[in-house]
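Design job #97: recover the sequence.
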């Protein structure tokens, strides 16, 4: 059982959990001395000190997920393929089927790095998703950079949802002589007016001589909402008519394995494979592996291996790397995986049900103490996603996070600039191996915190320091830990 009541959490803090200690001690935020450093390092450390002074230092955390018994509400192992050992078992069997394999790939894909197992995997993956062709690459980051830097032709217009991933931005930045225009997140009307403007302002696009490439994601990583892809496609068709010069690139990093027939993703779920030029799947999340594929036409695939520098100049994926991906696909065919997907749906339902039926929920909504955007209309959605966000009032973000960590719920606090200013949030990811009790425990822990804030407000206190916050601060002082998280 996990502490969710105030007194239980306070008692747990008498011996702070590994999770809390690891998070608090992983990075010391205060500036470090630079005087004794050689110039090269001094200049870098000075820049890092600027970041430390804003308390936004990134850090590589100790692996609390595997090293203690915190409840995992943050890792990418959504289907629990790693936690359950299922992927390891399949992977070892897959290796055993290929006893003569070499651990390395032998080179870049265009020289010595190609081999039959990799080519067969690509054919199988294309067939699984109903795609024409497929290219396996090292990561979705690399895929997006290659797609967006290499494919647009001069004069093309890149239209993107405001919340697309950093890798898409990086690729677009490197594209040559293109215009970039964003539309409001998941807003079909905004997409329509953006396209209308683009067609008005770009003669060659209007004449059907240049293209509009649209960047969207199936499930948005920091919001957990789903792209209205079908509606966007139908708007695009109104503009391109039969010229085919408005095309979509759909990043399915957060949907592969989780939604669609056998976890094949949103594009397959909606049956719009023919209306989407390129789909990117990352295997680093629900599929429990690493790497990515680009699903596309043979022409696009050829262009990527000719112009996509991040694909051309890198060692090709090795057989063990591809075997892990194949093992994930093999598991997607099993009942075990369908059960895992169903469990995630149940977890999301439990989360929203517990949240919206809590006696304090109306007051939380009324006061704006925290928002849960996806709680609105959750019952009407055809399927729920594994990502939910709690967006507290800005001044509370840090301490709500600490409160949940103190209760051994491993979540992440996502600050600006990862999300827009003023929308810092606690991101919660449901996993197949989480239990219903843990989901309810998490929601109750949030309300335990809210109840204390309300009670402080009711007695006229302006404070944000809850009893848990005080205990954590005392402990930090005792241990001389000066860092925030
Ligand atoms: C939407 C999106 N696209 C791409 C990536 C990059 O994926 P990969 O880890 O395969 O590079 C991520 C990773 O977080 C992501 O969220």
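Job complete. Output follows.
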């Amino acid at each position: 059982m996990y502490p969710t009541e105030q007194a239980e959490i306070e008692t747990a803090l008498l011996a702070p959990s590994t999770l809390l200690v690891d998070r608090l001690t992983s990075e010391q935020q205060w500036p470090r001395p630079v005087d004794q450093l050689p110039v090269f390092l001094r200049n870098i450390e000075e820049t890092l000190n600027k970041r430390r002074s804003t308390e936004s230092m990134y850090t590589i955390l100790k692996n609390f997920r595997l090293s203690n018994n915190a409840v995992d509400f943050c890792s990418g192992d959504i289907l629990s393929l790693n936690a359950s050992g299922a992927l390891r078992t399949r992977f070892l069997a897959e290796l055993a089927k290929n006893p003569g394999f070499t651990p390395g790939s032998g080179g870049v894909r265009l020289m010595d790095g190609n081999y039959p197992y990799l080519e067969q995997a690509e054919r199988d993956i294309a067939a699984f998703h109903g795609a024409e062709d497929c290219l396996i690459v090292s990561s979705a980051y690399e895929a997006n950079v290659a797609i967006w830097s290499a494919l647009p032709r001069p004069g093309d217009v890149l239209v993107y949802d405001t919340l697309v991933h950093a890798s898409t931005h990086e690729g677009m930045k490197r594209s040559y002589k293109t215009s970039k225009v964003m539309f409001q997140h998941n807003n079909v009307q905004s997409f329509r007016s953006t396209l209308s403007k683009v067609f008005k302002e770009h003669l060659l696009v209007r004449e059907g001589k240049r293209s509009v490439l649209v960047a969207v994601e199936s499930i948005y990583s920091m919001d957990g909402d789903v792209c209205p892809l079908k509606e966007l496609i139908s708007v695009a068709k109104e503009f391109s008519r039969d010229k085919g010069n408005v095309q979509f690139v759909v990043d399915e990093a957060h949907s592969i394995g989780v939604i669609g027939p056998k976890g094949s993703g949103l594009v397959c779920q909606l049956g719009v494979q023919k209306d989407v030029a390129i789909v990117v799947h990352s295997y680093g999340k629900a599929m429990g592996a690493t790497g990515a594929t680009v699903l596309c036409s043979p022409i696009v695939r050829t262009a990527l291996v000719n112009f996509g520098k991040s694909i051309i100049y890198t060692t090709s994926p090795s057989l063990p790397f591809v075997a892990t991906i194949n093992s994930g696909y093999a598991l997607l065919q099993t009942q075990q995986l369908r059960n895992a997907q169903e469990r995630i749906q149940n977890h999301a339902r439990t989360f929203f049900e517990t949240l919206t039926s809590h006696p304090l929920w109306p007051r939380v909504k009324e006061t704006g103490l925290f928002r849960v955007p996806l709680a609105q209309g959750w019952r009407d959605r055809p399927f729920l996603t594994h990502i939910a966000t709690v967006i507290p009032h800005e001044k509370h973000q840090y301490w709500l996070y600490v409160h949940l960590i103190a209760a051994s719920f491993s979540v992440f606090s996502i600050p600006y600039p990862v999300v827009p200013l003023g929308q810092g949030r606690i991101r919660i990811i449901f996993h197949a191996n989480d239990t219903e009790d843990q989901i309810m425990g998490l929601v109750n822990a949030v309300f335990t915190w809210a109840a204390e804030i309300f009670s402080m407000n009711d007695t006229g206190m302006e404070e944000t320091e809850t009893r848990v916050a005080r205990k954590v601060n005392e402990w930090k002082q005792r241990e001389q830990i000066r860092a925030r998280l």
